[in-house]
Design a protein that fits this description.
Two copies of one chain form a homodimer.
Chain A (H helix, E strand, L loop, with lengths): L5 E7 L23 H13 L4 E5 L13 H6 L12 H6 L5 E7 L5 H14 L4 E6 L4 H6 L8 H21 L6 E4 L4 E3 L7 E4 L4 E4 L12 E4 L4 H10 L2 E4 L4 H17 L8 E10 L3 H12 L4 H12 L21 H10 L6 H5 L10 E4 L1 H15 L3 E5 L5 H16 L12 H5 L29
Parallel strand pairs in A: 1-2, 1-13, 2-3, 3-4, 4-9, 9-10, 10-11, 11-12, 11-13
Antiparallel strand pairs in A: 5-6, 7-8
Helix pairs in contact in A: 4-6, 7-8, 13-14
Chain lengths: 463, 463
């Protein structure tokens, strides 16, 4: 049986996301991002299409590399203004039953003790549908906002991440034993004290000394997503992630990345297929190819050129405002986001120009750009899966809500007809839906599972 | 016209709150605190009663003073386990139209840059119904959880608070001018760049260098609640708070505290009545006095004695497990929560015993304990208001949902009949409902308002 394709709606708590300027489109309702109706509608559309999840990006800072300021970013609403993504999740969950939520949070600015409670709460309130996209933060403007003069170097950020995750695993997995919460009215016991343990974590970046504040949630550790595909990022992802969001327009590059991470996962004692790969993809579907091309051309007219360059300047750290529009870009390797530049320049095997970066159906956001009828889109998605071994796609937001609605109404039935997409949700938590038949908790080969049995773990100590 | 009484439902994202052990009551549904249905029901009950707000307490740590451990706390579910309070608010707001939300967050463990975005998001999603109860954190277990060996001394905590608030005011009030967000489709301008300013805050505890990430929310700064009534806490509250939650069983002590804070507010150039005082009160109402007494006696049987002492030991820092049940407690002044002990011991003008601390209708949680028919309850509430000059009450949770439902069904109509409670909500944000006719923003005499005009504020600088 062919591999089932996985799908997330890719979104952000902001009026602009991957394509700058689309808020101007007359049928786009992104300006309503401050209203919960907007989010409930998104989640219900995703659930109507049996999508696996709503994947919420975040950026903690503002894109101010292009032209040395944030002017183009502001005008185009290029991921600014931007609100907190966690607060919209519970209401979306309350108005759906199955769809999962991958929520981006930058651990660099959090403390694991407090953070662990927030995500346990999310997992409780969503009935076990919470996922965390682990980001270590890269915008210099975000670091400055938090009063830090410099962004940590690329590798250092992953050291912080390792330390943070270890502390969080101890809290989620090791602090409250199964059976600690008994609600025993006759025995006057809500929680059995001997089954709750203090975590003593004394890491290079974080210290924790105390029991987790929340009782265990359905999944304990939320489903762990990661988005790094640079060298050190891959090792981190291979070790910790259960799902990876990656970008890339070259099938070869994507296939290499997938193979490399799966191989590394095996070296960590994990099954290479215990990681699901979601490739970011822009899909514009319509009943016919001609209609889809018309839609794409119409959408393209709303791309804000300066806003789009502000985004790619922010992602790459390169000020594209310094180049002539048709000047091929030569760049120095940028330590903090090298994967982005590698991806675009390797795409065409030649240096790219700013004009190409802007063009809606050329470089796109950062991944495949697929326009066509349901059948054509399905062909192309299936090809990508077969050529690269990705498991599915993060569907990039273009015009809200119609791009996703069109996908759900047209492409989902086509994929179902071909036996490549589920026809009903499975029961259970997000983790059980992604990895059927294995229960709601981290798989025993996942590093977080090592912190489960506190009494036998020497660096954890009973309270 | 007599003063309108203000009312909040006082709750916590935990199976136990002020009265330990009530989760065992057969009609109590607190064990469902992990479900959003529970919270929607609470908010809708509050709104049915035209209550001003749902006031959500929080405690960041665990009560482990009593007996030197958390055993009694765990068994009685005495504010443990406890989940994040912010995440339940948007769904409550989505299913109501008017009721406000006062959410407790401990600033000691937050950074203003990140925190300001979270509360702006809350204010957006609630349509301007967000309030923040400013807490500086006092549990040693919370500090240890965050890897800090010691709790800051009492006064130092307020220094941190002053610095935090100044940074937050700059972000909320000063970073985005009115009219910055224009959604000008024809002019290709979502946000006018020249109207967004970077905040440069270089305080003793916090540094911020960058613009606020969120666009201005309906109230900009959330309604500011505070709960400190100790010496330094009063000065802090008199300067910053718009509403104060206080405890106290002695009318004299409460009246003194209210008068003192109002006087201090005047010394800061504020109208003394720009601060609303909410007194914590346990109210058990029934159609007749006899039925109410029966209810109270029934509830009292479910109070968990050790759990109750674990709470008061945590609040006071005194291990009441060291005393015989009938031994009058002598104590040393405790710097971190002196107001609590002053309140209880001054109540009866004599040292109190642990047995008195446990007794349901004696010492109570920390405020008036009122049992009776609607008419008797109304009498007593009105007397408290007239004797102490408080503005209203935080209604302490006993059995969920019936204690609040009974209040709404019985006492609210009685207060309305006497002209002491509104018969409809006012329109507008939480701030406009609390301070009618003055608009959604901080009053010009509030210290936060000083950070509004960035260009004229020397320590703020344009981006």
């Amino acid at each position: 049986m062919p591999k089932e394709i996985r799908l997330n709606a890719f979104h952000m708590n902001a009026p602009g996301h991957s394509w700058a300027g689309l808020w101007r489109h007359p049928r786009d309702n992104s300006v309503n991002y401050k209203s919960l109706d907007y989010w409930v509608n998104l989640a219900q559309t995703a659930e109507r299409g049996l999508l696996d999840g709503v994947f919420l990006a975040d950026v903690f800072g503002i894109y101010d590399v292009y032209g040395g300021n944030a002017d183009a970013t502001r005008r185009a609403a290029a991921q600014s203004p931007i609100n907190d993504p966690t607060l919209i999740v519970p209401t979306m969950a309350y108005h759906t039953k199955h769809v999962g939520f991958g929520v981006t949070s930058t651990l660099t600015y959090e403390h694991p003790f407090q953070f662990a409670r927030r995500y346990s709460t999310l997992d409780h309130l969503t009935g076990g549908r919470a996922g965390w996209n682990i980001v270590t933060g890269y915008l210099a403007s975000g670091a400055r906002g938090m009063g830090r003069g410099d962004v940590r170097t690329h590798d250092d950020r992953y050291d912080v991440g390792e330390d943070f995750l270890e502390a969080a695993y101890k809290l989620w997995e090791g602090s409250w034993e199964d059976g600690a919460v008994v609600h025993d009215r006759a025995g006057h016991t809500f929680t059995r004290p001997e089954k709750v343990h203090a975590v003593r974590h004394d890491g290079p970046y974080f210290k924790v000394d105390g029991p987790h504040l929340s009782e265990p949630s359905p999944q304990r550790t939320p489903v762990l997503y990661q988005a790094g595909t640079s060298g050190r990022g891959r090792a981190f992802a291979a070790r910790h992630s259960e799902a990876i969001f990656l970008n890339g327009q070259s099938r070869r590059i994507v296939a290499d990345a997938v193979r490399d991470v799966r191989t590394q996962a095996r070296s960590f004692g994990r099954d290479p297929y215990d990681i699901l790969f979601f490739l970011g993809a822009t899909v514009i579907a319509a009943p016919t190819r001609a209609e889809a091309l018309d839609l794409a051309a119409e959408y393209a007219r709303y791309v804000d050129p300066a806003g789009q360059l502000a985004l790619v300047s922010g992602w790459s750290g390169i000020d594209f405002g310094k180049y002539d529009l048709d000047q091929p870009i030569t760049y120095e390797k940028n330590n903090s986001i090298q994967s982005f530049v590698e991806n675009i320049t390797l795409k065409a095997d030649k240096p790219i120009t700013p004009r190409e970066l802007i063009a809606f159906n050329q470089t796109g956001a950062r991944g495949p750009f697929i326009v066509g009828s349901a059948s054509e889109v399905a062909d192309e998605l299936i090809e990508w899966v077969e050529d690269t071994d990705v498991d599915g796609f993060n569907l990039v937001r273009v015009v809200v809500p119609e791009t996703l609605s069109n996908f759900v109404d047209l492409v989902v039935p086509e994929l179902q007809a071909r036996g490549r997409f589920k026809t009903a949700y499975r029961e259970g938590t997000l983790r059980e839906k992604l990895f059927p038949g294995r229960g709601p908790l981290l798989h025993p080969t996942h590093p977080g599972a090592a912190f489960r049995n506190l009494a036998r773990t020497p660096h954890l100590q009973e309270a």
